[in-house]
Amino acid sequence: MVGRPAAPELEVGLRVLRCLGMLDRPMSLRVLIVEDELILAMDLEDVLTDAGYEVVGLAADMHQALRLAEAKRPDVAIMDVNLARGTNGVETARRLREHLDVPSLFVSGNLDPKTRARAADCRPLGFVPKPFSHNDLLAHLELAG
Question: Residue 68 belongs to what H/E stretch?
Answer without folding.
Answer: helix 62-72
